[in-house]
Design a protein that fits this description.
This protein is of the alpha+beta class. Helix content is 59%, strand content 8%. It has 19 helices and 5 strands. The protein has helices at 3-14, 30-35, 89-98, 106-114, 121-136, 143-146, 150-169, 177-189, 192-200, 215-235, 242-257, 262-282, 291-301, 310-315, 321-332, 336-354, 359-365, 371-382, 386-393, and strands at 18-22, 25-29, 55-58, 63-69, 75-83. Strands 2-1-5-4-3 form a 5-stranded antiparallel sheet. The radius of gyration is 24 Å and the shape is globular. The chain starts with a helix and ends with a helix. Mean pLDDT is 81; it is low at 147-154, 171-175 and 202-207.
Amino acid sequence: MDYISFCRNFFAATNIPISLLKNEKPVYSALGEILSMTPPSSPQWGLFPLERNPVFCALSPDIEYGRINIDGTDYDVIVGPAFSVPLTEQLVHQCMREFMLTPDYREQLVECLASIPQTSQLQFAKHLAFLYQCLNHKEVNLHDFFIENEIKTIDRSQRQVDRRIDDAENDMLHNTYHFEREIYQYIKEGNVQRLKDFLNANIKPLKEGKLAHNPVRHAKNIFIATATKAGFLGAIPGGVDVEKTYQLVDFYIQECEQLQTIEEITNLQYMMVLDFCQRAGETQIPEGISSEVYQCMNYIRSHTNESVSIDDVARQVHRSSSHMMRRFKEELGIHIGAFITRCKLEEAKTLLTYSDKSLSEISNYLCFSSQSYFQNVFKKQYGITPMQHRKNTQKN
C-alpha cells in the first residue's frame, strides 16, 4: 500500500492532520505539506506507550493525538492534533512551540488549525479504530483506549496489597516524604546554600521503595523520579521556564542512563538538584516588583520564539506602552526591549547546548533580524560567540 497516498486521502476526507513515520522519522505530514516545509515532528510523540497499538494520547486536556503501528512494517501513523474545544490563542501558541515553528508560519498554521473539526475524545477514538482496521485488517474495541484489562487491574491491585503487607512486616515503609518536601522547597526558593547544608547534613538512613532488582537500575529509577520532581515541584514553581525545565529533565535523565556505577549516579543527582535550585534562584522576583511587571516578564519569557513588541507586552496588563516602559525602568532598571532581548539570548543558550540546530535556525526561531545581528548581540552580552558557547557547554 502507498501509505503516503493513504494519509493524504484521510486528511482530504476529514481535515484531521495525519503524519507518517518510518523508523521514528517523519516522512510525511499533512501540516508540513500545507506549510510547504520539512515534515515537522513533536518530541511528545516519543512518549506514546509503544506496547499498545493503537494508542490514544491526550497531551493536554484539549489536544489529542493517536498513534498506530502498521503491523510488519517500520511505519507508524500519527493522527492529530485534534481539539475537543474551540481553537484559542493559547492552543495556537502551544502548537507553535511544540513543532518549533517560527512566526512566519503562524498565519498559515492558524488557518490550518481552524479548519480542523472540533472532535470529542470518543469521536477521535472512533477515527483511530477505523484507521487501525484499514491498515492492519483487524478490529479494535473502543474500550481498550480508555479502560485497562480488568484481569490485569485486579492482579496488580492484589500484588500492591501483598507488597504493602510485606513492607510493613519487614519495617520497609517509606520515610522520604518530609526529606523530599524540604529539598523541593529549597529548590523552589532558589536557596542554594540551605540546600547544600541540608544535603550534607547527617540525617537518618532513608528507606526507599524497591524500583528494580538490579542495584544500578534501582539507582537510575530513583534518579529519574528525583529529576522529574525537582523540575515539576521545585524549578517550575520557582519560576524556571517550563520548556527549559523539560529540556533539563530530559538532559539529566539521558546523562544518567549512560552511567554505570551507583557512585556516579549519586554524584550526578547531587549536581542536578543544585543546578535546578540555582536556576530557580536566578529567576526569583526581587522585592518591590509589581504584579503588572511580573505578568509582563512571564509573557516575554514564554514568547521568545515570537516577535514581541512593547505594545504586545503592555496589552497583557491593559496598560499603555509608556506606562509599562516607565514601570520596567523603575522596578527592574532595564528597558523592556533590553529585557526581551535578554530572554531571547537565554533561550538561545539553551538551544545551543541542548540541540543541534544551526545558528541560522536558532536566529530565525528567536526572531532576530539576521544571523549576524544575533551573533553580535550574543557576543556583546556574554563575551563569547554562540559557537564558542556551544563548544564549551555541549558534550561530544
